[in-house]
Amino acid sequence: MRQEIIDWLKENVSEHRLQHILGVEKMCEQLAIHHKIDPKKAAKAGLMHDLAKFFPPPKLLAMAKKEYNEIDTVCLSNPHLLHADVSAMVARDTFGVTDEDILQAIRDHTLGNPEMSDLSCIVFIADALEPNRGNTPELEKMRQISWENLYKSVQQTCEYSLQYLIKHNKTIHPRAILTRNWALHKIRAKH
Ligand SMILES: Nc1ncnc2c1ncn2[C@@H]1O[C@H](COP(=O)(O)OP(=O)(O)O)[C@@H](O)[C@H]1O
What we know:
Blueprint: H1 2-12, H2 15-35, H3 39-48, H4 57-67, H5 73-77, H6 83-93, H7 100-107, H8 118-129, H9 137-148, H10 150-167, H11 174-190
Helix pairs in contact: 2-3, 2-8, 3-7, 3-8, 4-6, 6-7, 7-8, 8-10, 9-10, 10-11
Bound molecules: adenosine-5'-diphosphate.
Adenosine-5'-diphosphate (ADP) binds at residues 80-81, 110-111, 127, 161, 165, 170-173, 176.
């Protein structure tokens, strides 16, 4: 199954993206073991999180419209954001994944989701922090937090991504802000 997915990825994403995906798979597994979450599920979700990353926008839109009654305006103007939802569709329809936890973690990997599961948190964090993302002091610090506190790590990952979007004059999908606020409250609730 794993090799079948990798062979499919070789045909459907760039070599650079494949290396990122394998980095996410590995970091998901390690984070899951550390935080006592099912590592097999985490690795699987990591391996499949970007299946639709290179699908052209019209294909992403067409597939998402088949699955969902409504597509929000931010996704309509930036269909690339739909690659998370469409990757979950490919995992289900091409690779027969029925585990809803895995499918949801794939859907949540770009914007997160308020109330998301710990499995989703892990894929969300690993996508941003796997080793191929670089080794700036900021990323290294964030990696350290990912071992110490899952929700703090989600908050930081959201803020890192939001800062990037602001700096590059990009439209912000509001769900990323809701995810950040949710993570913040989860941290406060723990104390
Ligand atoms: N909250 C958001 N609002 C709008 N665009 C976003 C948001 N988060 C991420 N993006 C954009 O969506 C694209 C995919 O994000 P992501 O899955 O994290 O991609 P990558 O793995 O290429 O970094 C990126 O171009 C990113 O800038």
